[in-house]
Amino acid sequence: MGFWSKITKFAAEAQVQQQSYFPPPATGIAPVASGEWTLVVDADCTPVTTRPAAPGDFIARPAVPYTFGGTLPPFQNDAKLSMPQNVQALVDYECRAARNKEYLDKAMLLLSQTDDGRRLLQKAQTEKFTFVFDQTRAAEAGAVGLCDYAGKQIPLAEGRSPTEVALTLKHELQHMEDISKGLDYNSADTPKSAQMANRVLEGNARVSESIAAAEALMGSPRGPVQQFRTAALFNSFWHKNHDMAVNLRDNLHLAVKGEWAQLAANVLPGYYTNRATLDYYDKNYTDYIEKQAPDMTGHEQRAKTGSWEERQDSQKRIDYAKYTAAKLFTIDRWTPQKLADIVTIRGAQKYLSGGTFDVGSDSALETSAKSAPLFEKLKANLRHLLPEGKGAEKAQLLEMTQQKIPTIPTRTASPYAGYMTAAEKETFAAIRLPDRIDNSAGRLTTGETANSYISSRFTQQLNAMKSGSTELDRLNYTISTQLVPQNRSGNLRGAVSELAEAGLRAPMGAFPDEYLQDLYGRLRMAQGASATGDTSPVMRGELKLLDHWQEMRKKGLDPVFIDKDMKAKSAVANDTQMIFYATHLMKFLPNDSGTEGIRPQSRPALKA
């Protein structure tokens, strides 16, 4: 065998070995519940509830129950805004809140398929933690998740996919466990001790994410052959923590053998090469310490030359700053061995000692050139606040090795990118039928009828519809026909909501004018009563439509007719009643999403 043939052979063998961890084996038979695995799910981990289990499905464990605190802050009418503006704010909040809950439910189900994920979720349940979406709090910290241990709360950022939320949850839950063991730092810790604890605390949370990614790939060793497994968490971890993910890829064989501690020890060093993240925490730490030792130059000047009141106030501030500065850096609490004794993964396995990587080494505690000036500023403040000898002594504790920012390595593709699920690949389409599958040519398809009776019935009616020169016309007539029996029984909104839950996405022009009139009235009613969530007259499926129309607007499409060409060709463009109510509904669509405003934190956040 020639040289290049051998290289090709070895590369092929490595690829086969790498991909042998996934996908799950195809059995050709429908899965049957077994032990803890009582749910039948499809390849996206969506529970199969409206049809029998089929080959290609899997069995999964139910999600661990959790306490949800909603999306913060809750909606409130603003007296300074007009009625349409308040409805816009209501629609924005309701759509975000519904999407957040949907993504969190999916994330909880995904994380509950891993042994360590279930363990930590059950611990959070026992300790009465609440999960909330708090975009303002997360934005201030520059984070996608936080662990508020004192408040027993996990605040999450919005706008993340279910797999990203699942990894964030695993990260913050690991913080919860580590903090419960006493792993933290404060202003009394020396900089080296605080730096060491801070980096291990964050690094271990990311190692915990890698454990979730590996467990999701391979499944539980206690689980049945047809248990749900996914590459989604691995792909998300690869994107978020590339260097650590490369280490994980190269050490998955240890996970197969159950050698989790060695796997963790081999993955952790990748965190210490993530310079952007280390810079973030260096700055957080210096900002935190600067509050204890601020620059008092201005107050010292006012204490000499200001008015009597200014002199009194400034002197009080100076005295307090000196008092707090005197308590800085008095404890050298953490050592590599103490950290090795307290830090574990998967509940009990220690991994920081005995390896080749030393978390207390100079290289592990280096600060970048970007952070060094912040420490220099702190040293100047300390020398200024404290007596000369003590000030110089404490300033020495801030000496940090300066490191040049390294060249960022080339990012490679995830070895499991080819196994992305349909949910991860989902793209926007102005019109999507219930359970619809679009072909490459983009022609109108009849979709699948497996998921529910309503989808099947809709497909039959759409196929039978011969009139209508455009797809929008056919949808308008089909939806009207679909709603007739329900409309007679007064359940117009319920019928539309069921269609939307089944996957229907269409512009306003696809819906009859009586429905748009009804929705318009209920949105005004909800705004007047500040009714959201379970108290809202707007149903969950309808929020999916409102969200879809807003997405159309963001993409430069017409939420009523899609585009000018469709409007020109469509017969429904002559429906004056429909256009009248659609025009009013358009005023209720928010122009932008998201919230502003921030709540300050007393110390650096533990972010994901």
Describe this entry's structure for a reader.
Among the domains are: 280-332 and 358-403; 425-586, no CATH class. Helix 12 (297-305) packs antiparallel against helix 13 (308-326), helix 15 (372-385) runs antiparallel to helix 16 (388-396) and helix 20 (492-501) crosses helix 22. The strands form four sheets. It has a three-stranded parallel sheet with strand order 3-4-5. Strands 1-2 form a two-stranded antiparallel sheet. The longest helix is centred in the first third of the chain and has 29 residues, at 83-111. 42% of the residues are buried. With 608 residues, it is mostly helical. Helix 4 links the parallel strand 4 and strand 5 (153-156). It contains 24 helices and nine strands.
Query: N- to C-terminal separation?
Result: 49 Å
Which parts are unreliable, with pLDDT below 50 for 5 consecutive residues or more?
Answer: 3-17, 437-451, 593-605
Number of strands: 9
Strand residue content: under 5%
Backbone CA Rg: 29 Å
Number of helices: 24
Largest sheet: 3 strands, parallel
Characterize the overall form.
globular
Strand order, largest beta sheet: 3-4-5
Average pLDDT across residues? Answer: 87
Helicity level: 40-55%
Structural class: mainly alpha
